[in-house]
Design brief:
By secondary structure, this protein is mainly alpha-helical. It is built from four helices and no strands. Helix content is about 65%, strand content about 0%.
């Protein structure tokens, strides 16, 4: 599996985990307090440089603010990187994709 596809797969899984807290009444907001810093760290590891830092701030805010969990931030970042900006896979830093 290519690095690009690994990033998409991991991003979708992380988005689904982040969205799942919407369906846990009461505890979902507490879980988001724990999930937000983890999601930001993962975003920064997945996308290096300035765009990774900016995306990690966005995903942190999206997860910590109530009512925004439905936004698929990781998938949108992948689309931004590989569809809209058309970054080539050879420009990627080799990173280990772990969940």
């Amino acid at each position: 599996m290519s690095q690009k596809n690994k990033l998409l797969r991991k991003g979708i899984i992380l988005d689904l985990i982040g969205m799942s807290t919407l369906f846990i009444p009461g505890a979902g907001m507490f879980i988001d307090l724990l999930w937000a810093p983890y999601a930001a760290k993962q975003m920064n590891k997945m996308y290096k440089g300035k765009k990774g830092k900016i995306a990690s701030i966005i995903v942190f805010l999206e997860e910590i603010l109530p009512g925004f969990d439905f936004i698929p931030t990781f998938t949108l970042m992948w689309l931004y990187t590989f569809v809209w900006k058309k970054e080539k896979e050879e420009n990627l830093n080799p990173i280990t994709i772990e969940i």
